[in-house]
Amino acid sequence: MTRTTLFTKSSIVAFVVSCASVLLTGGVLALTPPQCTWCDTISDALIFYQDNYPTSNFEPYQDTLIVVRRAMGSDDQQTVTSEMSKFFQMLRNRSYGINGAAADELHNFALMVTPIQEYGISAPPPVTGQ
User: Fold this and answer.
1) I need a surface site. Which of 37, 81, 109, 124 has the fewest CB within 10 A?
2) What is the rounded distance in angstroms from the CA atom of residue 89 to the CA atom of residue 126?
3) Which of 87, 97, 95, 92 is nearest to 43 (CA)?
């Protein structure tokens, strides 16, 4: 084997390894969920309340946040707006049997962390005293 042949084979192997690592990294990055830190913050709060109110069903609220995250990832502001408006309405109505105190606290918390004006989200005031 000549020195030139060895160099060429080494170059080809290095090129193939480089391409494979780029493809693998690209695949991993493509599987990474879109960033929505305020969604994550609300989701963490939902988990906290689920732990404290185990008879309440917070899963539909988490499902709504999943839709919002996907919409954020595809830059679909209309879906972000409609789903977050739905989220706030669900809290207001105490949908899916969630505890009233938890609904009010989550509503107030979500209002603080959600970019309401940026997305034109309609957030009804919480129902208090129920």
Assistant:
1) 37
2) 9
3) 87
> How far apart, in whole angstroms, are the C-alpha atoms of residue 55 and residue 46?
13
For residue 126 the two structure tokens come to 């919480």
Q: Is the pLDDT of residue 44 over 90?
A: yes
Q: What is the pLDDT of residues 56-85, one digit of tens each?
A: 999 999 999 999 999 999 999 999 999 999
47 & 82 share domain: yes
* Tokens matching residue 23: 């493809």
Looking at the structure, tell me whether residues 28 and 41 fall in a common domain: no
Instruction: Report CA-CA distances (Å) from 94 to 44, 67, 77, 103, 114.
Output: 19, 20, 25, 6, 19
- The dihedral region occupied by 75, where left means phi > 0, alpha psi between -120 and 50, and beta the remainder, is left
